Fold this protein.
Amino acid sequence: MGPLSETELSALRAWPTPAISNAIETFNVRPRNQGYMSGIRCIFPDFEPMVGYACTATMIADMPPNEKDRSAGQAHWDNILKTPSPRVAVIQDLDEPRCIGPLWGEVNANIHRALGCLGVVTDGSVRDLDEVHELGFHFFAADVAPSHAYVHILDSGIPAKVGGLVVNNGDLIHADKHGVVVIPHEIARDVPQACQAVEDRERRVINFCKSPDFDVEKLKSGQF
C-alpha cells in the first residue's frame, strides 16, 4: 500500500483515537486487545490528532555513548528521511528503570520537526514543555524529567516496543489525548468511513437514552 494522500490523512485526523479503534475492530484484522499503547501520556492534549508514519529507534540515558554509538543519531536522521511523510518518531527507552533522562526537549523537537516529524511517541521522558508546545510538536511519553543525563540513540529502523506495543518502522500512527493506535495499512483508507458507520450506530443509542421516550425494555430489545 502506498502512502496516504493529504486528503486521506486529513480524514483520519478528523476522528479521535477511540473512534479509530472502534472502526478497526469492525474489520477483524487483529484481536481487540492489540494495536494500541498503554501507559503513554499525551503531554499536549489540546493538539489535534497526530497521524503519520513511524520512524523507530531505541535510546539509553544511563551510561555515556561509546564511539559506535556516536554515529547512531545521524543514522536515525537518515532513517527518518527514508520514511514516508508525515513522520512520527517512535523511540523505545532501554534504560531499566526507564525515564532516567529525556532525549526529547526543545533542541531535538526542532531537529525532528525540520526532518518532517510531527511529534514523538516514547516510553521515555520529555522536557522543555513550554517551548515544545509553542513549536506545535506533539509529545507522547511515559514521564517528564529535567535532565538528559547521558541520553543517546542506539539503533534505528528496528522494531520498537513502546507502551506494550511493538511498532515497526513505517507503521501508521494515530494519536491524540486518549492515546496511541497503529492503523493497519491494508484498511487505512477505509477507516474513516467505518468510523462514521460506528458513530451512526452509537448515536442512535445515545439519542434514545437522552430522549423523553427512553424505556429500558425498548433498550433491551433494541426496538427504538
User: Anything to note?
Assistant: The domain at 6-190 is CATH 3.50.30.40 (Glucose Oxidase; domain 1). The chain has one domain: 6-190. The CA atoms of residues 99 and 124 lie 5 Å apart. The longest strand covers residues 50-60.
